[in-house]
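Review session, final week

We close the course with one last complete record, chosen because it touches almost every idea we covered. It is DUF2568 domain-containing protein, a protein from Streptomyces colonosanans with 129 residues. Go through it on your own first, then we will talk.
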Amino acid sequence: MAGDADGTAVHGDRLWYAANEILAFLLELAALVCLGWWGSAVGHNVVVHVVSAVGTPLLAIVLWALLAAPKAKFRPGPPVVLFVKAIVLGGGAAALYGVGHPIAGLVMAVVVVANTAVAEAFRHSPRRP
């Protein structure tokens, strides 16, 4: 495939890689929204709602920026990055479940796992797109 004279296999790999990266970004944004939504539903007064709605996604952003972003402040190994992704993205799926949408939470969790598996497959691919 890589040796195709017209380069279609390599071009196709690049398209799948780009599509998966776009999906990953959209899942990250969705996780932040879901964490904020869950945070707004927690507690019994307005102050707790607001603090949780802002604080939960903010904590996720800080954790992601420090450890999981491509240009993270600290460069931990892949196991730590995958753990942080599991916490943030899995937390988004769990948050959906927590606000009363168990099917959507399950779908998000399955898409997160599939997206991460494909990203790891591309990362370990002998010829990276």
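Two points worth writing down before the exam:
Helices lie at 8-41, 46-67, 78-98, 102-123.
The radius of gyration is 17 Å.
Good luck, everyone.
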